[in-house]
Amino acid sequence: MKNYLIVFLMFLFTLQAFSQQVKGTITSDGDPIPGVNIINTETGDGTLTDFDGNFIIEKVSDGDEIEFSYVGFATQRVVYSGQTELFIELEESSENLEEVIVTGYGSQIAKNLSSSIVRVDGESVKNTALGSFEQALQGRAAGVQVVTGSGMSGAQTKIRIRGANSAVASSEPLFVIDGIIMEDGGYLDRSNNVGFMDIDTNMLSSINPNDIQSMEILKDAAATAIYGARGSNGVILITTKQGQAGATKIEATFDIGLSETTRKLDFVNAEEFLTLAQEAWYNGGNDPTKFWDSSGVLVDGLTKSQALATDTDWQDTALRTGVAYRANISASGGDEKTKFFVSGNFLDEESIFVGNEYTRLNARTNLTHQLNKKVSIGSNMNFSYVNNSPVPVQGGIGKSNTNLPIHPVYKEDGTYFNVLRNARAGVDLFTTNTKNRSFIASWYIRYQIAKGLDFRTEYGLNSISTNQKAYSDGRLRESGEAQASSSASSRNSWNWKNLLNYRKRLGNHNFDVLAGVEASKSKFHINNMKGVGFSSSTLKTPADAAVLTPTFNESAYTFLSVLSRVNYDYKGKYLISLTARRDGSSRFGKDRKWGTFPAASLGYNISEENFFEPLKNVFNFFKIKASYGISGNAEIGNYLNESRYSQQNYNLQNGITLSNIPDDELGWESAAQTNFAVSMELFDGKIRADFDYYEKVTSDLLLPFPVSAITGVNNVTANIGELKNNGFEVILGATLADKDDLSWDVELQLARNTNEVTDLGDNPDGINIPGFGNTAIYRGKPIGIQRIPEWGGIDPATGEDLWVQQSDGMLLTTSQVEGQFNSLNAFFSNNQIPFGNPYPDFTGGFSTDLRYKNWSVSALLSFAVGQNYIASGEVINSKYFASSMDLTPLRHMLGRWRSPGDVTNIGQLTTDPTVWTRTTQYVSDVDYLRLRDFTFTYSFDIPEGSPIKGLDLYTKLTNFLTWTNAQPWMYDPENHVRGGNTNLMDKWKQVPQAKTVNIGLNLKF
Amino acid sequence: MRGLFVSLLTLSLVFTSCEDFLEEYSTIGLSADKLTDINAMNSLNAGAYSNMRNINAYEHMQSTTLVRDVLIRRSANWQPWFTWTDAGMPQMFNRYTVAYNAFNKVNMVLNADIDNMYGTAAEKASAKGDAYFLRAFCYFHLNNWFSNPTTGKSVPLVTTVMGTTDRVTQATPAEIMTQVEADIEAARTNLAISGGITSYSAATAMAAKIYFYHGKYNLAYERANEVITSGGFALEQNVADIYTKGNTSAEVIFSVITNRSEDTFGSASIGFNNYQADDANGITSLNPNGVLGKLRAADPNDKRFTDLMTEKDGVVYTDGKYPNNNVDYIGIRLAEMYLTRAESNIMVNNTVSAQDVSDVNAVKNRAGASDVVSGTPGKSAMLEIIFNERSKELYNETGDRFFNTRRLQKSIVNESGNGFIPFSDYSLKLYNLIPQSEIEIHNLN
Fold it and tell me: Residue B21: closest CA among chain A residues belongs to which residue?
């Protein structure tokens, strides 16, 4: 701490030199440009041009270099040599090199960047039909894997930057919006739900995509170390739009969209069902004449003749064509002192799921004001309201196979047929609604202490309140009693940053030094009321219930941090950046409260060298970069460092049981990352290429470590494992045409990542994670694979499944296994292998932007190749549908084994009981290439003097085309699984995704 | 202005360098440092009793299938724990680990400084009594299931709170027995002052059961006699009422109470699923060749068969003791005490008394059995009668059917029903294996 004070005091004593005043005007094509940034790089003094492009800068000395920069224009530098007035003509620039990259607690020109940061322009998320802005990153930033939750409104997204870095802690990147760390995940505490649902509303969906100026993705440790213990999963910085000095600009967009499921599951129809069911009935040794009476296909009063006259596609009862309306309006402008950006956004959506409704309102105000030469203040404020009524997935569309195609949706008297297994009843009789209000804001004061030395204090607030109601009709519950719940929860986070920034140029040496302290606290609490039993079906709030159960929970965590960064360059040629952050958190064990996260990066702009001149005809820019650093993952949960008892009541008496044994050494997961990169531009920027190679080793991996039962718990959480991600990223861009009436840019983003568990501490070769499924962590394998029995195909002689005996590789049929081992399960428990890879080998995208006169077309194709998925519900249900005769199989079952010699992957149909164990039989490859976005825009010519400055008409296709090898039991190749990385391949029931067509109108005033 | 900013900066440095800011503890729920009062002790006990639901969940099912009272009709998709090999029986779900989770809590209570806590003598005694009772009950069951007759080793004896680095060794069955007896007497002493979750009578009845299986028949007699003569309990007139009333029955001395709002898993739900009279749902049905099947054939009008079994399509289901999944797990009841008192008395005196005959007949008469004992049979004949009576009375309930068969070194019907497995063939194999992970961590054998 002392060191920082000394550094600070040194800054105060910086000397001031003799100097004078300079006036000037800045223009482009003869028009004055207001708001140009002017800085004396020697002294750090700066100013901005006024409305007429005029400026006055004080205290300029001979030999000082004055820099003129403005977004979208090439930066110019002038060495002062006694002029009293300067006339500067700025040239528009499409060059990425001059682009300002937001780096976290600061910014830097792209050319001088030595770390690995990808910038995605806000333009690419504008008017997106996707549920949340982060979903638009798919295919646009190499190394960022995006998996969209589902077509449900407000669905969550899973993002992995350079692979999965953790087992039980979160692997989601840190989202920072205008300097405020966002809460991500869902609004609700899942324990609070009335039914088994995965319909939580994504907190990130409350951000208006049209407010976003840019998204910067920090990938290597040199970039993320400034976020210390929270940076190792990568950081996504979102910068919202700010006003510019000049005439007020008003922009309005109106949009309407229609959506449908990307595809449906391929279930058998009524006729096919009866063929298969009767065959299974016969194979099971039953009397074929008793099929209708005894097999169990006739339930709930259904007669044979009714069944024969019915052919229901149950998916159609829970899916529909969705419709969405969007409106967005923004105003921005200001003068040299005050600038503003104000926007409002409205979205009303009925998704592809019957019953799902979603409304979002957003209001943003971003303000900056220059009080005087020394002091400026500013504020970014966003309020959003999300009203979402999701519908059950497992209990809705997930019941598409729990009735038969020969079953009707309704009985003749209008009541639901077989109500507990009826998909439509599941959707209709379960209602839930969440209302979320979130206020995200920051306020800052910036004070120029001395030349080049700025002090900035900023207070940020993130306040989210959620009200949720749910009601489950008694008909949906085995007990017959209706159940209702109502909860109110809030998350309140604040952070306070105090930053000192010193910029200094000494000859050819440029310094940019940052030092700061930051404190933050986040609190969550929830009150929930659950009620069971109502005297009338018209009563739906817990207050009217016969039995009420209230619950309450709250938790909090704090972070305290000291951060510093030094950026140095020599003539813009040799670049060095050093970062260090020291983080303490309430989440860490008492012997490990503080951690230090250092990083260093080096860059070399070879193209600036004289010896490079001969090559400049081809390579106008060539940079090599290397970085190494350590960042952490503190998303390990609250209070794991305490010994905890959880409630376990006995006969209505308060009971407790030990639930956590603390580890005083418990701490963040630590990721050390090495990055090598080459960045180049050829033929005057017409071709651009970036290559990154990285290796990221996460050590102190938090894992459930099995301990003896004598301790009172079965496992403790400790930092014991090690995990490695390595890979490369390629970005290739080209400008194929760049003329006034024709421009065409194309870009390819490609990333390869391999994930491998390298150490598990004292554990044997693998750890089986307790819980649903057979998730395992094995040394030498990717994290989150499955430990499952190996299926050996179908025996052509008998039509039985074959199983691989691991001791000798022998193939045994099911009846051989049962003969030798008593049951399949006894055999399975000793014949499991770690299997599968839940991560794609390659991900990426190809984008093209073509503009010809008034027409423009942009398209994005995204892809993922090489991942495995283990199907569960629908496939297991298909295989064993005849054991209970109450499940609809998928159509692939038609290819079943029928007589000796048949070679097929589908066994003989039987009425044998279901074996729920997942096996390698259910594992399949999932690759896809999809047209993520296709936008066609026509810009009308606007006559001079019209009050309207611009009018665009566009149509946008989202997820419109998909090419995939995904098996017919998957709704969509984007396989989103909630939670961490331990259950990645596996989801009980699949959820459809949506494809949409939008038509919109964009007006500028 | 500059002064303002410098002071703001200084303030922020001072504020943010404050270590207390990082001390953030949960306000909800208990942590170890808060377990300092009688209420916390009672909560630990209640948590441990909640574990009993899990510990005993499969007790009746394993016992009844091991002695082949029932046959497995339908694969329940479970491990075949009812079959055994030379290496013992497979792990019986999580009985072992849950028992030690419960020991963690009661050991916390028994090692706490209860005497110096604020509270009445009665409050302190009931907290200790509950903890001693549970420890005795669970170790008694573990010792019966996990004693390896070949190595002469049982489970580790843990009477203190253990940390993650502590290591233990296995105790001998005799060492566990000594601890169980000491604990159950301590439970009686404390519960005599004031009952808690468990009553003094329950502890006394449990003591009778413990001594009975430990071969200390004089003490078993004394304790059983004390419970019977206390007048606190009475046989139900109607056998089915025992199971529908559960812990509220006048006959039931100790039960693990099911409360569906707290825990959907337990003995009741397992029993309900296992014995359901439905060939699609129930997993087992009566084995006509087993001891119980033959007893039923001999006296088909006994209410324990007519009222508690269902016959459908020639298959007999033993569904009556778990009429739904919300009934209690009955641990000890008065009928068992009568049979224990009778047998203990015979073993102590080496002869049969009129009281022994009347004890057995009390149980028989209530069930409307046709084979009421008349006169005073000889010792071995009477012991055979009592064995059959225990089988009819306690099947599907606790581990008694298996424990008693083994105690008396009786044969078990083989799987095909055409022969018997003698004691010498099964006694060395019929024990549960300690979970492999525990063996590895503690280097057990």
Answer: A558
Give the global pTM.
0.83
- Give the relative orientation of helices B400-407 and B379-394 as an angle to the nearest 10 degrees: 160
The verdict on a CB contact (< 8 Å) between B51 and A5 is no
Q: Closest to B50 (Cβ–Cβ): which among A457, A562, A655?
A: A655
8 Å CB contact between B401 and B67: yes
Q: Quick check: B254 and B42 in contact, CB under 8 A?
A: no
Chain A: give the shortest CA distance to residue B371, in Å: 40
Q: Which residues of A touch B21 (CB under 8 A)?
A: 519, 521, 558, 560
- Shortest CA gap A5–chain B (Å): 9
Say if B443 is an interface residue toward chain A (CB within 8 Å).
no
CA distances (Å), origin A654, targets B45, B137, B263: 9, 21, 13
Catalogue the E-assigned strands of A825-854: 832-835, 842-852
Which is nearest to A757 in space by CA: A165, A270, A169, A136? A165
Residue B17 near chain A (CB below 8 Å): yes
Q: Which two tokens stand for residue B410?
A: 């009786």
Q: Are strands A20-28 and A85-89 parallel, antiparallel or unpaired?
A: parallel
Secondary structure (DSSP) of A659-697? EE---TT---EEEEEEEEEEEEEETTTTEEEEEEEEEEE
Which residues of A are less than 8 Å from B262 in CB distance? 649-652
CB-based contact, B165 to chain A, within 8 Å:
no
Distance of alpha carbon A126 from alpha carbon A615, whole angstroms: 39
Q: At what angle do helices B200-213 and B334-349 cross, to 10 degrees?
A: 40
Interface contact A656-B43, CB threshold 8 A: yes
Nearest to B31 among A560, A645, A711 (CB): A645
* Tokens at A444, concatenated: 């800052």
Domains, chain A: 2-93 (2.60.40.1120), 133-260+321-788+961-1004 (2.40.170.20), 791-830 (no CATH)
Tokens (6 digits) for A35 = 């708001």
Strand A174-177 vs strand A235-240: parallel, antiparallel, or unpaired? parallel
As averages over each run of 10 residues, the pLDDT of chain A (1005 residues) reads 46 46 82 79 78 83 83 77 83 68 89 92 89 89 87 85 85 92 70 49 88 94 94 94 89 96 94 96 91 90 94 95 96 91 96 94 96 93 94 87 95 94 93 92 94 92 92 86 90 94 89 94 90 87 88 90 94 94 91 93 94 91 96 86 86 90 87 96 93 96 84 86 94 93 95 93 70 72 87 95 94 91 80 88 95 95 91 83 91 95 94 84 92 96 90 96 90 71 60 93 94
Of A315, A318, A375, the residue nearest A351 (C-alpha):
A318
ipTM: 0.89
| Environment class of A688 (CB within 10 Å of its CB; exposed 0-12, middle 13-18, buried 19+) | buried
B435 touches chain A (CB under 8 A): yes
Distance CA A447, CA A500 (A): 10
Q: Supply φ then ψ for residue A986, to 5 degrees.
A: -125, 125
Q: Is residue A838 helix, strand or coil?
A: coil
Give me the count of residues in chain A.
Answer: 1005
Domains belonging to chain B, first-starting first, are 36-70+90-275+322-442 (1.25.40.390)
Contact list, B168 vs chain A (CB under 8 Å) = 708, 710
The reply to whether residue B28 touches residue A554, judged by beta carbons under 8 angstroms, is yes
Cβ neighbours of residue A611 closer than 8 Å, sequence gap 6 or more: none
For A913, the closest chain B residue by CA position comes to: B75
Alpha helical stretches, state H, B147-280:
173-193, 200-213, 217-229, 239-245, 267-275
